[in-house]
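Tokens for chain A. Residues wanted.
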């Protein structure tokens, strides 16, 4: 057993660590290793946890060995993909972290429009490989996010309206369940597990390989950017909502209330920025964007053909790892005038860049699945809202956190129920029932009960197996 004196952290002996290490193709990083400090940190520096060891797995067999070791020593597990969990679900105090970051192989089968990616791949790995064939799988909007967490919680990005959520494009998953068994999850092989994986997937074990559909999108897409003053934001946002609700699924657009990063005379001024991506005929892009911007005087408007890979890495510098981050997110119905006014008032008080209020129109390919077809909840919501702020390790985060909480709370009366698991904040763990809703929570609980992946995996948007009925 690992040492667990009352009130003291779990510690493995040098001998236990050496024995585990000798069985792996990868390696074990214990608190004594110089690499430990880097290995224990994830993207969000608000999360400051000390695992008993990090197992950097090289293959599926390593994952099985690490899970068996955690069970043998009765310590909790966390699985780390890209490490982008805002809530810190991929690292655990005193437990064993199964780090998949060395498992990043991608195999594309262009003839059948499929791609297989290992469980530690980042979106950059997926995108680079598929783009070599002019293909893409819908994913998120930052290239350093992990495919693992993004898919298992849903996955929304620029191609969602056209091709659905990332989890809607999942065809199969190789995984090691938290009880140590190895399964291929698929619609035919394991319908219940496959249902749960698409939205509540982090509850069951470690996915070592995902297989996705990949779609032809070409390698460049028309991207429009328009900026409006905050005074004009109500008119621009109201027109945006009207336009999106009658547009085809080829148009994806997001509203950002944020401080400007340029041009020079506007730097740090809070503005309304509208970014659009068009997947239809490029010759129609100008007219589509003119329509989206129509009726409101703008400070700036530009349309350009952008390499898809550049689009996908547009946020990499602004949102690089290493700062403290806090977010609140949910869903909105119709964005009323009063709601926009409330958001504009909050934007005026926004802390420095890159704090942001983000509104994204949702309907599209994701509506082609019925709500009951996957664990992912609220697929028919009108808009997502996400309020994010960040500050450096040396600053007092409280004023930033207060701004996010105040902004989000002010929109309560326009929020529809629910919360996107991938945007859960560090203080949202008590809201897992709100995330999934009673019916899906209980259904997942039931599948947990049947599969019994084990009590050692609780570090995720957790639906505990012990509560199975
Ligand atoms: C900068 C930034 C940008 C983002 N942009 C988007 C976006 O555009 N669209 C969107 O939908 N979301 C977005 N998100 C949210 C993102 O989807 C979640 O944070 C997601 O959980 C990240 O996955 P990860 O593998 O990087 O995270 P991790 O922190 O590694 O893991 C998150 C959860 O997934 C589990 N997990 C990860 N990989 C595996 C695996 N292979 N097998 C089993 N469990 C696994 C972990 O155990 C943990 O519970 C963004 C987040 C950040 C920080």
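Reply:
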């Amino acid at each position: 057993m690992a040492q667990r004196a009352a009130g003291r952290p779990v510690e493995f002996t040098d001998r236990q660590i050496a024995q585990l290490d000798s069985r792996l193709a990868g390696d074990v990083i214990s608190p004594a290793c110089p690499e430990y400090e880097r290995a224990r940190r994830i993207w969000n520096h608000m999360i400051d946890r000390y695992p008993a060891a990090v197992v950097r797995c090289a293959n599926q067999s390593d994952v099985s060995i690490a899970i068996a070791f955690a069970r043998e020593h009765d310590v909790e597990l966390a699985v780390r993909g890209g490490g982008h969990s805002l809530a810190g679900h991929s690292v655990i105090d005193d437990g064993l972290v199964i780090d998949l970051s060395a498992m990043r192989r991608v195999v594309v089968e262009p003839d059948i429009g499929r791609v297989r990616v290992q469980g530690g791949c980042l979106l950059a790995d997926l995108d680079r490989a598929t783009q070599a064939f002019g293909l893409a799988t819908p994913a998120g909007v930052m290239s350093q996010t992990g495919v693992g967490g993004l898919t298992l919680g849903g996955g929304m990005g620029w191609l969602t309206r056209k091709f659905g959520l990332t989890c809607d494009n999942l065809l199969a998953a190789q995984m090691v369940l938290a009880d140590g068994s190895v399964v291929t999850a698929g619609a035919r092989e394991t319908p219940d597990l496959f249902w749960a994986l698409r939205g509540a997937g982090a509850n069951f074990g470690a996915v070592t390989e995902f297989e996705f559909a990949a779609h032809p999108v070409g390698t460049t897409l028309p991207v429009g950017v328009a900026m409006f003053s905050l005074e004009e934001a109500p008119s621009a946002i109201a027109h945006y909502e009207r336009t999106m609700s009658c547009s085809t699924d080829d148009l994806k657009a997001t509203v950002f209330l944020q401080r400007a990063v340029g041009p020079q005379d506007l730097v740090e001024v809070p503005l309304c920025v509208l970014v659009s991506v068009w997947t239809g005929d490029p010759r129609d892009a100008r007219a589509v964007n003119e329509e989206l911007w129509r009726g409101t005087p703008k400070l700036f408007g530009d349309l350009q053909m952008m390499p898809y890979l550049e689009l996908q890495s547009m946020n990499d510098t602004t949102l690089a790892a290493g700062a403290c981050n806090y977010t609140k997110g949910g869903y909105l119905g119709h964005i009323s005038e009063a709601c926009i006014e409330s958001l504009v008032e909050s934007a005026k008080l926004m802390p420095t860049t890159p704090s942001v209020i983000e509104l994204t129109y949702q309907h599209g390919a994701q509506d082609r699945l019925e709500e009951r077809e996957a664990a992912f909840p609220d697929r028919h919501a009108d808009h997502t809202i996400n309020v994010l702020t960040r500050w450096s390790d040396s600053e007092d985060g409280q004023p930033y956190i207060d701004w996010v909480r105040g902004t989000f709370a002010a929109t309560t009366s326009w929020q529809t129920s629910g919360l996107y698991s991938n945007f859960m904040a560090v203080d949202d763990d008590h809201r897992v029932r709100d995330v999934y809703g009673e019916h899906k929570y209980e259904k997942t609980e039931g599948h947990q009960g049947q599969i019994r992946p084990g009590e050692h995996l609780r570090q995720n948007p957790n639906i505990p197996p012990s509560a199975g009925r």
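Residues 432-451 form the longest helix (20 residues). The two ends are 31 Å apart (CA to CA).
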